[in-house]
Amino acid sequence: MNIIGRPRRRVDGRAKVTGQTIFADDLMLPRTVHCKLLRSTLPHARIVRLDVSRAAAHPGVHLVLTGRDFPIPYGILPVSQDEHALAVDRVRFTGDPVAAVIARDELTAFEALDLVDVEYEPLRTFATPDESLAHDAPRIHEYGDRGNIHKLVSLAFGDVDAAFRAADRVFEDTFFYQGSTHLPIEQHAAVAARDPDGKLVLWSSTQTPHYVHRALAKALAMPAAHIRVIATPNGGGFGGKSDPFNHEIVVAKAALLLDRPVKICLTREEVFYCHRGRHPVLMKLRTGVTRDGAIVGMDVQTLLDGGAYGSYGVASTFYTGALQTVTYHIPAYRFQGCRVFTNKPPCGPKRGHGTPQTRFGQEIQLDKIAEALAIDPADLRLRIVEQPETLTANYLRVGTIGLEECIRRVTRAADWSARHRRLPYGRGVGLACSSYLSGAGLPIYWNDMPHSGVQLKLDRSGGVTAFCGATEIGQGSDDVLVACVAEVLGIDPLDVRAVTGDTDLTPVDLGSYSSRVTLMMGNAAIQAAERARDLLAEAASRKLGAPKARLVFADRRVFDTENPGVAMTFAEAVCAAEAAFGTIGTTGSYTPPRSAARFKGGGVGPSPAYSYSAAIVEAEVDPETGWIHVPRVWIAHDIGRALNPTLVRGQVEGSVYMALGEALMEEQTFRRLPARLSHALVHKFPSMLEYKSPTTLDMPEVFTELVEHPDPRGPFGAKEVGQGPLLPVMPAVANAVYDAIGVRIDEVPITPEKIVKALEAKAAGKPARYGPARFPDVPWPEALQVPPPWEGGDGTATNPARTPKAGQEVVRS
Amino acid sequence: MMRLPHFVFRAPRSVTEAADLLARAEGDATLVAGGTDLLPNMKRRQQTPGTLVGLRRVGELRTIANGDGVSLGAGLTLTEVVREPRVRERYGALWQAASQIATPQLRNMGTLGGNLCLDTRCNYYDQNYEWRKAIDFCMKKDGDICWVATSSPRCLAVSSTDTAPALLALGADVTLVSANGTRRIPLGDLYRNDGIHYLTRRPAEILTAVHLPHADRWHSTYWKLRRRGAFDFPVLSVAAAVRVNGDGVVEDARIVLGAVASRPLETAAASAHLTGRPLSDDTIAETADLAARPARPMDNTDFSLVWRKRVTRQFVAYALRELRGDDMRDVRLRTSRMLL
What we know:
The complex is a heterodimer. By secondary structure, chain A is of the alpha+beta class. Helices cover 26% and strands 24% of the residues of chain A. Chain A has 20 helices and 34 strands. The longest helix of chain A is centred in the middle third of the chain and has 28 residues, at 517-544. The two termini of chain A are 46 Å apart. At the A-B interface, helix 3 and helix 20 of A face helix 8 and helix 12 of B.
């Protein structure tokens, strides 16, 4: 192969480094007016009075919109259609949009926000999951499993209790994973306008133009065919631009009403309010093992602090329990998850979506198990790694597994056996592993159409245009598209033009989320390119008089392998094909294999292929101050095949960076003021200065090892890399801290304060740890019993799915 | 994007002209040099002056003069201060402090005078207008209460300047010029322990220069605590200067803490304890205890206040050990992410 597997400069690299990439905020259309949103100053309140007359009369103001203009709810999941573009009668968190002012410029719109008169009647505020569990009323939403519980999940695969009774040891631990936000460098921005035909066009910094398209059609009650959504290149997404957002729908409506372009660029503070970031998760893990380390059963309970809206929350809840079985063999598995509503910005999908939290707990617990059983932590994992081509207890079909080699590579690179438990006090190393999906096996909304489509247009010039709905969010998806097409057609990547993320021009791709683009779009692109190559080969064969099967496409030429002089240029082949068959255009599409899971809830977790990672972190901890320094990280990632190793390494290093932020400093936390003085519940520091995320100076040396065993389900064998390498780093930091100073920090972020407290606890003869003490009582429903494959199960439940109690409304799209 | 409110901009060419503009504006004008502190504050509507008097064209504020020691114009950028060999060679604490301010880009804009006059900081105050509205504001701007300690009669915002503790340890004076005249005061007299009225500078005065005494046999250092290796303001800092005689005995010492009060805190007891003693492990430990005692961190910056109080001792000890000649590069690299 000429292109695949070689480190290359990405096709959109030139535009990015020369500042020529047009982001949403760079768009300046004639007659543009500007939008600002008035956001709630209370965390939970009824809107008693909303008077916009003073704002509307302010000079320079063109339009003021309120919730009355947006009666139709929307939301990313069909089961959580709980958002309105602007609040209708109720605000649910500080920052919930209440009104929109559209004015000649941003400053005028900002000034007019202060002229909107809102009178609120404060309602009881729910700041923590404990509060939401304790009080059923008032309900933050009128739907959900009960009171302020949004979602309850209970699944049992085999008899975990019996497995525990038979186990040599059962380990029980509670962990807490703090919430964090995506922090893309680019704030969300959107521009809406009517095109000359009167149809709506929305340019937006979104990862999911297809879903935004659907949400706009619904919320604005317009035919989808009259709406065009163009995803501008994202200055980072990480999951934070995967929902349809208030501001997108507001500017769309305003542009329709005013018949002129309307633009909004969120402030950094507003990006913190959009959020949809990592759910704070409290978890209890019980794992039964034999003396030699084999897992006999695992029981996972998670409690997710969902924030004020549904977002992807139902999926996030399932994800906290979905992937434990994919890494290690777990013959009996039980998962119970609970997501509650609270009066804070909604949580959703952030890199790793729902899985890093439980992975954190699982990998620390394995470290504890290894120590208790006197087994080296790397050795323990090698003993229990799941077998390739397996159907897990929860019916996830796992193909290739490179985890064993990841562990071997990373332990060798880090000289693990010479360091673990052997470094002087204050220095340590920790190991952890993980796995992630290469794309969700099911779409967000039920349909049986392809998940990704690619269309190719071949030009007489020898150029090729590739159309795909996938969105370039900085991860390099345009480069993957171009590389796959160029490889099959034997041309240069720069000969291929990528047209992506435009619902008018490009076939549907579900979006840049769940690490799905390389695998799904890549397969669709290969199919489209192979179909084009077939047409060209047919025509070239006739023209050259060489058998079609002997023709090779390489170096912009088509030639006979046995007689390379018999050749034509790629452009000539296109002309020959066009003469023979008419205009050359081909399509390719990709639909994931059917899931083996047939129980309710089995839709979350299946994937065509799973990636694997192992990381070793070195930590230096000052026992006096608790100060933590991470000088080195070794990470091995099972990528299947690296299509462009430069991009793969970039994703691995970026994952380590983000992971260290979550491990050591990032916290999406909130401040409540004394109740006798104030109703306030505010984000503690919605700014890039005080929300701490590492700088380049805080980055350790990162040693990346790529494990390449091509997976037959991936394009050229490729699996994902965008999210998986993040996952092992946080628990590896915690395990390294333990190796360094002998205390367990069972939560993130791992801060100097917590280390000092754990050391003090140890000195006082208490458990040498810092972390949550208990898991609260949750009214779990009866578990859905699904016998695992080895007990004769067929992927269905043996008991009926629980139906909602009378009086509970289930929201459907 | 957050937008600046409207304002009138003046660009005087001399200190006299600038002082006249300030005098005539009667309190509605604010000086701006690099703008790295003021302009974000204006975007957040913490300050909304009608007139900005820009100082970048005032050449006399950017001079460096030899005198008894060295005089630095207040308009020098922090990058210029860092690059000045006399600063680096003789006034280590100032060089280390200035080197650790914010980021290279911000140091290219921010000035020495601006850093000395830096607005006090607080997590309840350094927020957007909308955020502050959601807590019904605080006494530093538009409100009545200090949310850090609701019974506090005064604002508890934190002095977050890096250069002030360093310059205090170095014994610096500053010159203030107004239309009515010029005065030179010890730098310590510029500050008040009040988050709102944290400067004694009168509204129509311009801080024009910083005067460093002869370095003589003084050695100085600056240690800064912050979460990350760049960007962050200090949440604790220790500036220390000692003059040691040939026998290794401390003849004179000044230890100043930053970011633990609304002004830089001179720790007289600790400095006195050090005087007449060698920099032994015991002396360092005792001095660190004394120096940490008056530190009163509050819950309005990064890190917990209990922990910040707790590690004050260690940071004072780091500073003194470095002045003794210990190799502190490892600790420095781990805590500051840079060698200084």
